[in-house]
Amino acid sequence: MKLVKDVMVRDIITITPFATIREALSLMKRHSVKSLVVEKQSEHDAWGLITYTNVLKTVIAEDGDIDLLNVYDACAKPVISVGENLNVRHAASLMSKYRVKRLLVLADNDLKGFVVMDDIMAALLDSID
Questions:
Q1: Domains, the chain, ranges and CATH?
Q2: Domain named CBS: which ranges (predicted)?
């Protein structure tokens, strides 16, 4: 039985919600990632997530300028999160039910990583003979 902590990404790239969409895209390009975790603004705030899909929807819907729109205009916040000791089967079920490809992994609202559907599929494929 694989747990979320066995497949989660621990190398997390974060961004402030006040950064521009251009800055977010630049950071994604520099690190070759498709999503960034949006930082909390206080201890009791929620984490967010910005993805290519969020950016495209926002820029197209708002007919927006990537230099004028901020990350908070496009990000999902709060995002669905799980604990690191959850069975990946349950994480995959949440992803399927809510039609998301990424879940944040939190412990007492502290960011530990995130889990991506592709990583769950890779773990499943590894278990097949």
A1: 4-126 (3.10.580.10)
A2: 8-68, 75-129
Burial of residue 88 (CB within 10 Å: 0-12, 13-18, 19+) is: buried
56 Ramachandran zone, left/alpha/beta (phi>0; psi -120 to 50): alpha
Taking Cα atoms as reference points, which of 60, 61, 47, 53 lies closest to residue 25?
A: 53
- DSSP conformation letters of 8-52: -B----EE-TTSBHHHHHHHHHHHT-SEEEEPPSSTTSPPEEEEH
Q: pLDDT (tens digit, 0 to 9) for every residue of the chain, 129 residues total? A: 789 999 999 999 999 999 999 999 999 999 999 999 999 999 899 999 999 999 988 888 777 788 889 999 899 999 999 999 999 989 999 999 999 999 999 999 899 999 999 888 887 777 776
